[in-house]
């Protein structure tokens, strides 16, 4: 009987090696992709938070700033929340600081 090729056991062994290698490579690629996507997600979450905090800092003048305090007082007076006397008293207090 002439045999051509590796036979049944040789074919099974080669198939197992190929399947094991493919599985290992596929798992490694999948882990790398997951790590990459997790990093991208973390960056996307961090960017809006940083932009939001910068916007808040830019929108809110420091509390020690007398001009911003006077502007807020003027807005309250314009809305009718403060009377002229209250506005004048607070304005004098701010300017005296």
Q: What kind of assembly state do the chains in view correspond to?
A: single chain
Write down the overall mean pLDDT. Answer: 78
How can the largest sheet be summarized?
A: none
**How much helix, percentage-wise, in residues?**
over 70%
- Tally of individual helices: 3
Distance from N terminus to C terminus (CA atoms, Å) equals 110 Å
Low-confidence segments: none
What's the number of extended β-strand segments? 0
- Helix/strand-derived class? mainly alpha
The global form is: rod-shaped
How do the helices and strands follow one another from N- to C-terminus? HHH
Radius of gyration: 36 Å
Strand content is under 5%
